[in-house]
UniProtKB/TrEMBL annotation:
Gene3D superfamilies referenced in this protein's UniProt entry, alphabetically: HAD superfamily/HAD-like
Protein name in UniProt: Uncharacterized protein
Highest taxon of the lineage: Eukaryota
GO molecular function term, any single one: phosphatase activity
Pfam families assigned to the protein according to its UniProt record, in alphabetical order: Hydrolase_6 (PF13344)
Organism of origin: Gossypium darwinii (Darwin's cotton)
PANTHER family from the UniProt entry: 4-NITROPHENYLPHOSPHATASE-RELATED, OS08G0542600 PROTEIN
Single GO cellular component term: chloroplast
């Protein structure tokens, strides 16, 4: 005899689907937001509809936002790009890029692996 597996109807779903950043922000469930810029906030040429107003609303609730960028640019150039697209950089706690992290590690050399590199290394992107 095969046993049947069933889930009681009172069990909440494990996953919830949202139709965009704005709908998720309206839940006010999160105090910290780590947001990718490209494909989440804008398409490279213009902000997605509602993206700027959603971030402004999040800021008024006290939410902390960090922009995560997987590209070869430094944080300062990416902040300027966001500003040029209409985003207010003061809404973000910071911007993190892989190049920025590499630059900081190479400059500080506080990590044993980076310290062992000496002064002869090259960062290619």
């Amino acid at each position: 005899m095969m046993r049947k597996c069933s889930v009681a109807p009172s069990v909440e779903p494990m996953f919830q689907t949202f139709n965009g950043l704005q709908q998720l922000a309206e839940t006010r469930r999160f105090k910290a937001w780590f947001l990718d810029q490209f494909g989440v906030l804008h398409d490279g040429k213009q902000p997605y509809p509602g993206a700027i107003s959603t971030l402004e609303k999040l800021a008024t609730t006290g939410a902390k936002m960090v922009i995560i960028i997987n590209s070869s640019g430094r944080a300062s150039t990416k902040i300027e790009k966001l500003k040029n697209l209409g985003f207010d950089p003061s809404l973000f706690m910071g911007v993190v890029t892989n190049r920025e992290l590499t630059h900081q590690y190479l400059q500080r050399r506080g990590n044993a692996w980076f310290a062992a590199l000496g002064r002869s290394c090259i960062h290619m992107t």
